Amino acid sequence: MATDTGPETIESVDPGLGRVSRLRGALFRYVTFVASLVGVVSLGVLLAYVFWDALGMDSAQPGWYAGFFLLVVAPFVGFVLRARTDAVAGEVALELFATVAGGIQGGFALVVVLDVIAGVDVWLSYFLTTIGPAVGVYLYGRLNRAASWTGLGVLAAGLLGPVAGTLLIGRIDVVVSGVGAPGIYLLTVTLPAALGVGLLVDRNEDLGDGRPATLALFALGVAGIVGADAVPGVSRSVWQLFVASVAAPTGYVVAKNLADRERWSGLAGPGALVVGAGVLLLVDGPLGLVGPSPWFDWQFLTSPPGLTDPSTAGVYAPIIGSVFVIVLVAIFTLFLGVGAALYLEEYAGSSGLRGAVARLVRINISNLAGVPSVVYGLLGLAVFARLIGTGIGTVLTAALTLSLLILPIVIISAREAIAAVPDSQRRASYGMGATRWQTVRNVVLPRSLPGIMTGTILALGRAIGETAPLLMIGVPAFRRDEPTGLFTRTGALPRQVFTWADNPNPEFQYGVLAAGVVTLLVVLLTMNSIAILIRNKYERGDV
Q: What is the per-residue burial (b if ≥16 Cβ within 10 Å, else e) of 276-292?
């Protein structure tokens, strides 16, 4: 046994270890704690400074601060303290936040894909010939298990629908001009989303009949047709897309949690924030309270960028450009990254020439993950923009360059998730007569999907915040118009923030710049929250 020689040192059983000092261990523990604390406090101070400038807090009077503390801060702090001892409350609040934030991002993605890139005529053509029939046949197969032809029906719609849709483009101008873009989006986006929510409500025994939910969401879409133009910065078409992406999932999440009394506590925090902020907005005028003059507001999010007048500068075009690029990056990296990870873990040999090549590839992928991002920018400029000819600063060049940047990260995270699947489950699948592909599809992929999705979303969060590669490939410093195609030059949110940082106008360097940084932080935090939510849901088996 070891001999206790005092509170500061002990003598080890192994003579080779000599005397082990407790003081050194305690000192190391406290040093690491202080270092972590300094890092967290420094980051908190920096974020507080940025948010202070972005929200224009220096213009508010003390009376407004008192109301803000009583109506917003105090309830929020109380909820956080409650969530420390009530895991369900924190889980519900995080789910609601991720749903709203993810829905907002999804709304911007719908605006980019449907309204900016495709256009209402192209969307309607492919909806009528491809998307609508494929989804309809799939849902019929889910409801009627005896229908064995639905798989072939979906395949036929996927193969023949695009051909028919291409032929239909240009022949439905009468429908488009007669119904209008808002009406088409109401019938092809809002109504399917409302029907989907109604179906989910019907399948949840605690929620009952789903028809009221469907009617409520459809009525909200109709209300947008009538009065959405009265909302600053919102068109009737954008209203329909955001009803489908924000109102529909948020309403379902709220209803699902309200149906379970044990989860009501999780809605208290978000509800208190909404009510407190609403009361403060209602009483500040009658009471003469002067609040902040924020740079980060709805006008900032829906206006094009500017370089001369800070009061009219916005980030709408850069946000659309960033969403356009990141959607393409997600498509490229998900298929290529997961495919490469599956090959390296499940198909690559462990011996011989194939094994040596696989080991060489694994080593180089790990090395590529540590290459500076500016090198990828130079590579994108030389290979994609110059050699292949995708263009300087275009959407496709930016997407390919950023995909190259995060592809090693996606491959590594996907490999780790796939390797974490127990071999016993693979052997059990083989023992039942399954082929390797059937084992990968039915056993490996479903169990590794949480790790794959989490790693991919976190990698996309890095990609959307990168600036150096965008500088290298020639993304313009200023562009008022959103991109309309793959080969259109595009702005990007981090590139626009970098441009404002060099503007000699102090209001750009502080207020507008801070608002741009807050916008970027909100996007990054939203993506990280969605990753956490997806991981938790898959780990519990809710999805």
A: beeebeeebeeeebebb
Whether 409 and 491 share a structural domain: yes
Q: What's the structural domain count of the chain? A: 3
Report d(CA 318, CA 306) in Å as an integer: 11
Tell me, yes or no, whether 235 and 184 share the same domain: yes
CATH number for 499 = 1.10.3720.10
Question: Between the CA of residue 506 and those of 59, 193, 349, 481, 510, what are the distances in Å?
Answer: 16, 45, 60, 25, 6
Quick one: 50 and 194 in the same domain?
Answer: no
Structural domain span for residue 510 = 310-540
Clarify whether residues 131 and 268 are in a common domain.
Answer: yes
- Domain membership of residue 60 (yes or no) is no
Which residue in this structure is represented by tokens 């709304």? 107
Query: Distance between CA atoms of 102 and 532, rounded to whole angstroms?
Result: 12
Co-location of 284 and 361 in the same domain: no
Last residue within a domain, chosen from 279, 302, 325: 302
Q: In 3-state terms, what secondary structure has residue 423?
A: helix
**Spatial separation of the C-alpha atoms in residues 117 and 485, rounded to whole Å:** 6
Residues 376 and 518 reside in one and the same domain: yes
Where residue 351 falls (left for φ over 0; alpha for ψ -120 to 50; beta otherwise) is beta
Are 191 and 218 contacting, i.e. CB atoms less than 8 angstroms apart?
Answer: yes
Integer Cα distance of 284 and 33 in angstroms: 43
Residue 6 lies in a domain: yes
| pLDDT recorded at residue 16 | 55
Q: What is the mean pLDDT of each run of 10 residues along the chain (543 residues)?
A: 50 54 81 92 89 84 85 84 79 81 79 74 84 83 73 80 77 75 87 87 77 87 80 77 88 84 79 82 76 82 82 85 86 89 83 79 85 91 90 91 92 90 88 86 86 85 88 87 84 89 83 87 75 68 53
Structure tokens at 495: 């590139």
| 19 phi and psi angles, rounded to 5 deg | -95, 130
Do residues 250 and 216 make contact, with C-beta atoms less than 8 angstroms apart?
no
Cα distances (Å, whole numbers) of residue 228 to 87, 303, 535: 39, 17, 36
Residue 399: per-residue pLDDT = 92
Are 246 and 328 part of one and the same domain?
Answer: no
**C-alpha of 541 from chain center:** 21
pTM for the model: 0.72
Give me the pLDDT at residue 84, please.
79
Q: Given this model, what pLDDT does residue 1 score?
A: 45
Evaluate whether residue 343 is within a structural domain: yes
In three-state secondary structure terms, 452 is helix
Looking at 375-468, which runs of residues are DSSP E strands? Answer: none
